[in-house]
UniProtKB/TrEMBL annotation:
Any one GO MF annotation of this record: DNA binding
Family affiliation: Belongs to the sigma-70 factor family. ECF subfamily.
Source species: Anaerocolumna sedimenticola
Domain RNA polymerase sigma-70 region: 13-75
Protein name (Swiss-Prot/TrEMBL): RNA polymerase sigma factor
Pfam family, one: Sigma70_r2
Record's signal peptide: none
Length: 166
């Protein structure tokens, strides 16, 4: 890899590493695993940057790599036998302060099935447009919108149910 390519990948890491780490953590619920997957993501970006066809944004391409690596990790025997109940603040950002406690909201998001959780993570946490989410997940835009709507409905329902017990 030449020096210019190294600089490009270094710049990409500077720009997207925190976002990738946050998203990996939200998927995997383990900070150290998220760090490993983030590192592996950028190793793959470095190895395959010359093959990037620029059919999507660089962020979309990087997030797709990270999501695929997270999904692969979640399929492993070791991962399936772990208990991830201790959730730390790494997943949160100060901009999410508001009506719902961040930790409670994160807990509710983690209760969602993977197909709804990944839509919420990409749309709200990564601030990606529906078209890019569709490209990453290999879905039609209408399917992304439907899943986003259903995920929001489930979050509202779960949050309201939790509030009724207080």
């Amino acid at each position: 890899m030449d020096e210019q390519a190294n600089k490009i990948v270094s710049d990409l890491m500077g720009e997207y590493a925190d976002s990738v780490l946050r998203m990996c953590y939200l998927y995997l619920k383990d900070y150290h695993l998220a760090e490993d997957v983030t590192q592996e993501t950028f190793i793959r970006v470095m190895k395959h940057y010359d093959k990037f066809r620029k059919e999507s944004s660089v962020k979309t391409w990087i997030m797709k790599i990270a999501i695929n690596l997270c999904k692969n990790q979640m399929k492993t025997w070791w991962y399936k036998r772990q208990n991830f109940n201790d959730i730390t603040e790494i997943a949160y950002d100060a901009s999410y302060d508001g009506l719902v406690d961040r930790q409670e909201l994160f807990h509710e998001i983690n209760k969602l099935s993977t197909k709804y959780k990944e839509i919420i993570l990409l749309f709200y946490y990564q601030e990606m447009p529906v078209s890019e989410i569709a490209e990453i997940l290999k879905l039609k835009e209408s399917a992304v919108k439907t899943r986003l709507f259903r995920a929001r409905e489930q979050l509202k329902l779960n949050y309201l149910e939790d509030e009724s017990y207080e």
